[in-house]
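Hey, I'm writing a tutorial for new members on how sequence and structure tokens pair up, and I'd like a real worked example in the thread rather than a made-up one. If someone can provide the structure for the chain below, I'll link this post from the tutorial.
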Amino acid sequence: MTRRSFAYFGVLSCLCFSQTIESRPPAQDDPLHLRVNVVLVQLNVAVIDDKGNYVTGLRPEDFSITEDKIPQKISTFEQSSDPDQSAKEIARGDQKHLAKGTIKLPDDDSTDVSRSKTDIKGPHLADVSLFILFDTSNYMYRSFVFAQDSIVDFIRSMDESSKLAFYSYSRDLSRMTTLTTDQFRIVSGVRNTVAGDEAALYNSLLQTVKDTVPIRGRKAIVVFSNGPDNASAVPPEDVAELAQSTGTIIYIVSTQQAQDDPVSAAAFERVSKGSGGKAYFAKNWRQEKQAFASIREDLFHLYTLSYYPQPNPNRGWRSIKVKLAAKDLQKYHIRTRDGYRLLPATAEPINDNSASKSESDSR
């Protein structure tokens, strides 16, 4: 009787805490063992008008999400805000623009979403786990210092609450600094890099995406590449699929040398676009700085939506479509990832002291 009561309490706790949507039948040999598998899908969505301006001030009810054409219900909703906006501007809002559903102000992301029943977080500075991946191959010999300066400026432009990691790569990946809010450590890691040999971008990028798997919340990778990949064993398609399946945004800043290689340029576009990010091709160090500034602005203007998928028998690739619901909003453009593949659940043994086990994943 005691064991049954404990089992019931354990299962109930998992259901309440994790908002479970899928459960596996208990094993036939032990009816007290129930495995709970939770899948939370998180989407980072940019909404852009025809002039390239960010559309802000949207509310949960303005978005429509389907997965394999199955309508989904938004569970949480969050919009980043520009780090320079004032608390006064946030509190005041702009009722005129809110009535129209948008606030098209690049430096003012005021919004009022208090009327929605969805779990909403108000405007705040971007809370992001950001991995910077720097090409230190022999492609970098001529512009090494300029690239370092661009990356350092980008790091210093980020909010102090943002967690940053700095990796470098040539033939191998070097994890110079793991995730930290200490910008001094990150900058020191950048300054301590030295040029290496051949470039294994996709190998290194795949490893970096794998490092993001256990991280919850918004996560992104910013790659600086000075040339095509000439040493990887994995194709860019593997990187793109894993990034989509883990909800990791990939931005790639590359030089004219990579753009002059049509295969590399196309691959950079596919990998970044598939994850909901962008690819930039800079002709000089000024354009490199502009690209990093654009990435920063993008991170500070993303909507983050999440949902627990409705029952879906598809255990492979699931297609995601995000649209704006109202007719007057459909003139805007949406950028986000277009799907994900269910990752294998980690099998963990259930000991005799615990009658239930929760396996929680965020996609």
